[in-house]
Write a structure and sequence with these properties.
The protein is mostly helical and 215 residues long. The chain has a domain at 23-117. The protein is 65% helix and 0% strand. The chain has ten helices and no strands. Helix 2 (44-50) crosses helix 3 (55-65) and helix 7 packs across helix 8.
């Protein structure tokens, strides 16, 4: 009992010392440079992290994925990695943000970008690995006589290019002025610019100057 109690006392003292070291940082970066003002006072990062699966731990890992493309987040990760599991649970992400001097919006944007890339890649991986079994099921259904068999057959035919795949509505707009002018000429329709010039000539020819002494 004495040895166990002594070990627990040493562990508590070690945790207390680390907590004091953490608090002694104040508003300073890990390199000792003073932060003139905190980046965020509210638990904005904690709120953001609570909205994703995995919470704050997943948030930090997403930020870590963005470290190469966004090196500005390195002070935050360096401070996080220097702390124990106990400190991670004791302090908020916003406190780590303040102490590291990294802006909260930079952490959120870098984590969001990394999460998008990671989850998109995972989704593609899931789709590609499931493709053989899905295709096998589709072929089985296409060979059957269920109410959806004809739809599966149609999709397989289109995949194999046995049937044309609809390309949707296509609207072609030509801006070839020469072609338009030629078409108008051949059809006997006068072009717009020619019509304006002829109208101007007609107005100019019909204009009669006023007699002297009259307005």
């Amino acid at each position: 009992m004495g040895k166990r109690a002594g070990r627990r006392s040493e562990e508590r003292k070690e945790i207390a010392d680390k907590l004091q070291d953490f608090k002694s940082l104040g508003h300073h970066k890990p390199n000792g440079e003073k932060i003139t003002s905190p980046v965020t006072l509210r638990k904005t990062l904690e709120l953001a992290a609570s909205k994703i699966e995995g919470g704050r731990w997943a948030f930090v890992e997403y930020v870590r994925m963005a470290e190469d493309s966004t090196p500005e987040v390195k002070p935050f990760l360096a401070l996080w990695d220097s702390q124990t599991q106990y400190m991670h649970e004791k302090q908020t992400l916003d406190q780590y943000c303040n102490l590291s001097g990294v802006k909260a919006e930079l952490l959120v944007s870098s984590a969001a970008a990394a999460a998008y890339r990671y989850n998109a890649d995972v989704s593609d991986l899931m789709a590609m690995t499931a493709m053989p079994s899905v295709l096998e099921k589709g072929i089985e259904s296409a060979k059957g006589f269920s109410k959806n068999s004809h739809k599966d057959r149609e999709m397989i035919y289109k995949h194999a290019n046995f049937l044309p795949v609809p390309s949707g509505s296509v609207v072609n707009i030509s801006n070839n002025n020469a072609a338009i002018a030629q078409a108008n000429s051949s059809s006997g329709v006068q072009g717009f610019s020619e019509s304006v010039n002829d109208l101007s000539d007609s107005v100019r020819d019909a204009w009669v100057p006023p007699e002297e002494g009259t307005e």
